[in-house]
């Protein structure tokens, strides 16, 4: 099992460019999450999904969009990148809380720099 | 609101003990603990559900006081491999869908 994978690992964008980050999991998890991590800030939730076809906003959703067309994939889009979006982005997945312990499994991260 | 972790940093020698605290202003359903090494993804350590259940994992254990909305992570007889940043993630009750709010992290450094 690969667990949670993220593509790409690194990316440099110019202000105003767009891009999509791909997250894939092979654990058949219902819930998926996108976080950003900035120095000294911990992990902050951008968007999350509780199942195929569903998405919802987290703490810091502005400037991002997401889609979950397939259960195993969760895409994060930046329509018009800004320097403030320079960060490390982590995707995570978990089982439903109601069925078992729902620890989150994290992908390796994507380091994004916006110039 | 983000839970508050204390201390912000701890420096230990191998074999020493440490306690990391996590405090929230909200009523909690569960508390998760994760460890992150530099340049890597966070890795799950343990989860505590409301009820004050204490859990253990090797020489790392944790407690959860739901009345005070506080959790503590106990690292005993620390090893070099324990070095990293420790995060607590708190989950509110109700329809939280497993959403976690993470603390700012505690940097733990273990020296030989």
Features:
heterodimer, A: 115 residues, mainly beta, four-stranded antiparallel sheet, globular, B: 112 residues, five-stranded antiparallel sheet, 55% strand
Gap between N and C termini of chain B: 37 Å
Mean pLDDT of chain A: 94
SSE sequence of chain A, one letter per element: EEEEEEEEEEE
Order of helices and strands of chain B: EEEEEEEEEEE
> Which overall shape of chain B is indicated by the principal axes computed on the Cα atoms?
globular
How does the helix and strand content of chain A classify structurally? mainly beta
Helix content bin of chain B: under 10%
Q: Report the total helices of chain A.
A: 0
| β-strand number of chain B | 11
Kindly estimate the percentage of residues of chain A that lie in beta strands according to DSSP: over 45%
Overall mean pLDDT of chain B:
90
Main beta sheet of chain B: strand number and arrangement? 6 strands, mixed
| Classification by helices and strands of chain B | mainly beta
Tell me about the largest β-sheet of chain A.
Answer: 7 strands, mixed
Q: Level of helix content of chain A?
A: under 10%
Q: Give start-end ranges of low-pLDDT stretches of chain B.
A: none
Question: Which secondary structure elements does this structure contain, and how are they paired or packed?
Answer:
The complex is a heterodimer of chains A (115) and B (112).
Chain A: E1 4-7, E2 10-13, E3 19-25, E4 31-38, E5 42-49, E6 56-57, E7 64-67, E8 73-78, E9 87-94, E10 105-106, E11 110-114
Parallel strand pairs in A: 2-11
Antiparallel strand pairs in A: 1-3, 3-8, 4-5, 4-9, 5-6, 7-8, 9-10, 9-11
Chain B: E1 4-6, E2 9-13, E3 18-23, E4 28-36, E5 43-49, E6 55-57, E7 60-65, E8 70-75, E9 84-92, E10 101-102, E11 106-111
Parallel strand pairs in B: 2-11
Antiparallel strand pairs in B: 1-3, 3-8, 4-5, 4-9, 6-7, 7-8, 9-10, 9-11
Give a brief outline of the structure.
The complex is a heterodimer of chains A (115) and B (112). Chain A is an all-beta fold and 115 residues long.
């Amino acid at each position: 099992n690969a667990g949670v994978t993220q593509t790409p690992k690194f990316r440099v964008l110019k202000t105003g460019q767009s891009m999509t980050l791909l997250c894939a999991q092979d654990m058949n998890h219902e819930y998926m999450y996108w976080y950003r991590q900035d120095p000294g800030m911990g992990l902050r939730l951008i968007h999350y999904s509780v199942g195929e076809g569903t998405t919802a906003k987290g703490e810091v959703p502005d400037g991002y969009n997401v889609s979950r067309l397939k259960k195993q994939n969760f895409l994060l889009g930046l329509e018009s990148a800004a320097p403030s979006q320079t960060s490390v982005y982590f995707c995570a997945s978990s089982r439903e809380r109601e069925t078992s312990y729902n620890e989150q499994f994290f992908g390796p991260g994507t380091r994004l720099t916006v110039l | 609101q983000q839970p508050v972790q204390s201390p912000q940093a701890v420096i230990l020698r191998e074999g020493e003990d440490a306690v990391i605290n996590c405090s929230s202003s909200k009523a909690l359903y569960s508390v998760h603990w994760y460890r992150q090494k530099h340049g890597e993804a966070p890795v799950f350590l343990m989860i505590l559900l409301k009820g004050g259940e204490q859990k253990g994992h090797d020489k790392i254990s944790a407690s959860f006081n739901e009345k005070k909305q506080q959790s503590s992570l106990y690292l005993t007889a620390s090893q070099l491999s324990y070095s990293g940043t420790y995060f607590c993630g708190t989950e509110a009750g109700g329809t939280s869908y497993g959403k976690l709010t993470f603390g700012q992290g505690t940097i733990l450094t273990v020296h030989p």
